[in-house]
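name: query_chain
kind: protein
chains: 1
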Amino acid sequence: MARQVRRAFKYRFYPTEEQAAELSRTFGCVRLVYNKALEERTRAWHVERRRISYTQSSALLTQWKKTREFAFLAEVSCVPLQQALRHLQMAFTNFFAKRAAYPRFKSRKRSRASAEYTRSAFTWRDGHLTLAKMTAPLDIRWSRPLPQGAEPSTVTVSRDSAGRWFVSLLCKDIIPAAPATESAVGIDAGITSLVVLSSGEKVDNPRHERRDRARLAKAQRDLSRKAPGSANRDKARRRVAQVHARIADRRRDFLHKVSTRLVRENQTVVIEDLTVGNMLKNRKLARAMSDAAWRELRSMLEYKCAWYGRDLVVVDRWFPSTKLCGTCGTVRAKLPLDLREWTCECGAVHDRDVNAARNILAAGLAVTACGDGVRPQRDTSRTGRSSAKQETRRATAGALRL
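structure:
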């Protein structure tokens, strides 16, 4: 069955000098409004113990525009400024719901320069996009077509640290469900092999950062020699950013290909709930883990499974997939990282990663059949363990024999 989703299509564009100047002013105003509203909301709470809503922040914005100091805010489109206040409101909503940390100020150097336009602030006609305060449409490189008959509801313009300009069009799209299949796959993430499948296949890790490490090091050395605040330093900084962008683009392209293939070929995809943030505290492996981008791969699998009608099962992070013998169910006490192949007491010889992938698949299918979720749960039962862990332990008692 086809699914209707809201999908963003991102394209690169090349602005004229006038458009670049207008967008740069808009980026600066968006950042200023966000930071000033955050400062006011923080002050009101700590000094007056009073919360400021989005409506009150919008009224403050109107007052700021009437002052001599911030009169320039009225020279750009008002829609991106209002959207900045909405984004701040969402940040506070996530903070109060304990889904995120306290909102931080946007930095001119570290934050991505962007501005969001809603339908009232741009014109879409015959495939040409014209933003508010501009007379000419953007020169967009249409690397792929928009869905037939689709019209953007929201447009986000951004500029990355490498100086490249992008426009993202949010449209409604109908995605047909992938052909039904009975295949299921368990996935074990790694460093030498990016993913190891329960079928025994190993997908090599391209190690994009390592391949460009020498180029990146040279660019960073050149940057360190430039005088702070000089034009040459800004050029050198941009060259460093271009190398980083090249690495990120290649990594993202590879992850898209891998995730799309896994989703198209399998009805059920089972993965582990890895705590990547904690794993990055390992100073010896942090760089390699960051280059592997396991979290980004999981995000792609999540939304692509939802798009194409597939089932994504996430196994509890405490499930001993690597130490568990898939033949007899024995859990090994210790298994060092350098031991890539091991022999169980029952005589079975296991490839460390393939065995883990098969155990992940079996645990995901078994716990799903039991009717209980396999995501980590905080609530404990009278046994003192989460229901997901109990079901996993019951399933491993007999169902994990492949």
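note: Residues 367 and 391 are 6 Å apart (CA to CA).
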